[in-house]
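re: that chain from earlier
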Amino acid sequence: MKKIILLLVIIVCGCYMFAQTSETVRIKAGEDPAKSYSPHGFYQFPVFSEGVAVFKNGGRTTARFNYHMLNEEVQFISANGDTLALADPFSIKYLTIDTNTFYYSEGYLEVIVNDESLKLARKVHLNTRWEKIGAYGQASPSGSIRTPNKLILRNTGRDLSINQDIIIQKEYTYYWLDKYSTALKATKANLLKLLSPDKKRSIEDYLQKNKIDFKKESDLKKLLQYSLEVKE
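^ sequence. v structure.
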């Protein structure tokens, strides 16, 4: 019975982590979360850069954009200098920030391999939790608690509790995007769904001969590049 339970736990964890990887940053008690996370805070890019938002209704607008990873929103500088968030991401067909392209599907997906027929994209999610500082200054986990974004952002060195560290886990989830910009998790099964029968056979053969980690960005790039090179 114990073996069966262990097997189920392994299967569930494996499914959750498929096409996903993460990085972890610890922010010490008393530190400013944004400043401690990176030199440009929770923004993905160091500065707001020129870009274009192309809408599904055919309209478009240009502005200086940046992606706020903690709030999971694209922000822009308005004409009067205010920093605002795009209000209706579902209306966006795609958006560019400098040389980077984003689509929206249950969150912003950044394209990392861009081909007209098939793309590879990734979604960034910052998962946060608190850790109380126990005896002798040792951290003691207080449970995996998803802290509201706005609460984190309002915290400064003065407001942050003296006995709590913040653990921020930067998670990447990978997606395939077809020619219609439909997003599917970057798995073997979903890739095969998007390919012609001839390409499917070649990819099956390639995967038998090459070890591909579907949680590893470099492996996914290599697999997609090969699938694009296969002749119909």
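The chain is about 25% helix and 35% strand.
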